[in-house]
Amino acid sequence: MKRLISVGLAAGLAVMAVLAGCSSAPEKIRIGEVTRSLFYAPQYVALEKGFFKEAGLDVELSTIPGGDKVMSALLSSGIEVALVGSETSIYVSQQGAADPVVNFAQLTQTDGTFLVARKKEDNFSFDQLKGSVFLGQRKGGMPQMAGEYVLKKHNINPQSDLQLIQNIEFKNIAASFASGTGEYVQLFEPEASRFEQEGIGHVVASFGKESGTVPYTVYMTKQSYLDSKAAAIQKFTNAVYKGQQWVASHSPKETADVIGKYFESIKPDILENAVKRYLDQGSYATDPILDEAEWNQLQDIMDKAGELKQRADYAKLVNTTFAKAAKEGK
C-alpha cells in the first residue's frame, strides 16, 4: 500500500511539474521585418543580448521583403508583429480593414537614406540635381516619399527637373548604380559607406536630416492581437526599449560587434561607420514612443507625394500605452 501511495505521489508531482513548466513556457512572437537592415540595430541587440528571453518571450525573426508582403503575413496571422514603415498601417486603414493595424513601438525616427553622388562634390547644393539622372526608390514606399519631399523642399520637381528612375527593385538599386546607372542615387547604409570606401560614390546629403523626425520604422500588430495579448506586447516593448537604450549608451564599434552576425558580408569597419552615421543623425529612436507630431509629419510627406487619400486618425492607429509604460519602467 505504501509503495502504491509513493508511486501515486511521484506521479502526481510529475504531473504538477509538467503543468508548472507549461505555465512558465515563454510566449512565442513571430516578427516579420521588411528588410534586413542595420537601420534596425536596436532590434538585433535586443535579440543578441537576450532582452526578449529575459522578458519571457520566444521571438522568431524572419525577413519578408516588401511592405505589402509583410502586411499580408500580418493580416493572415502568419506573423504576430510587423516591423515596417508606418505608412503601411495607413494604407491598410484606407482599404477599410475591419481589424486595424496599430503602431505600438517605434524603432527608427528618421529616413535612413543618403544622397550619393558618383563624383565627389565638396560644395554640394541640391540645385546640382537639376537635369541629372537620379536613381530613386520604389514609388509609394517611405524612402521614395521622403526623397521627393526633400527635393520639393529645395524647389526641385522630381518629375520634370531631373530624370527620375524608380522602377528598379529595392535589392538591386545599389548594384544598378555601381554598374553605371544614374549620376545620383538614394541609398541606405551600409551601401553608402561601402561605396565611399570603394570609390564608387560619395555621400553629399542625408535625407534623414532633411526630412525631419518621422515614425519611419515601427512595430505594429492587429488590434485584436493587441487586445488579447496585451501582457506579451508589453514585455516585447520593454525588450525593444532596452535594446534602444543599449545602442544609445554604447559606441558604434560595440554595437557593430554585437550585430555583426546579421551582416556577415559587411566588413566590420564599414558596419561601424554606418552605425556611427545613424547614431550621429539620431536615426535610432531612444524610446519606443510614437508622438503625434511625428505622425503628422509622416502624413505631410505622404500627402506631398500624392499617396494619402485622407488624414489617418492618430488615436485609432497609434497606441503609446505600452511604449510609455516601458519608458517608465512599468
UniProtKB/TrEMBL annotation:
Secretion signal, residue range per the UniProt entry: 1-20
Broad class of where this protein is predominantly found: periplasm
PROSITE patterns membership: PROKAR_LIPOPROTEIN
Compartments it resides in: Periplasm
Pfam family, one: NMT1_2
Superkingdom field: Bacteria
Keywords, comma-separated and alphabetical: Signal
Similarity comment text for this entry: Belongs to the bacterial solute-binding protein SsuA/TauA family.
Protein name: SsuA/THI5-like domain-containing protein
The organism of origin for this protein: Brevibacillus choshinensis
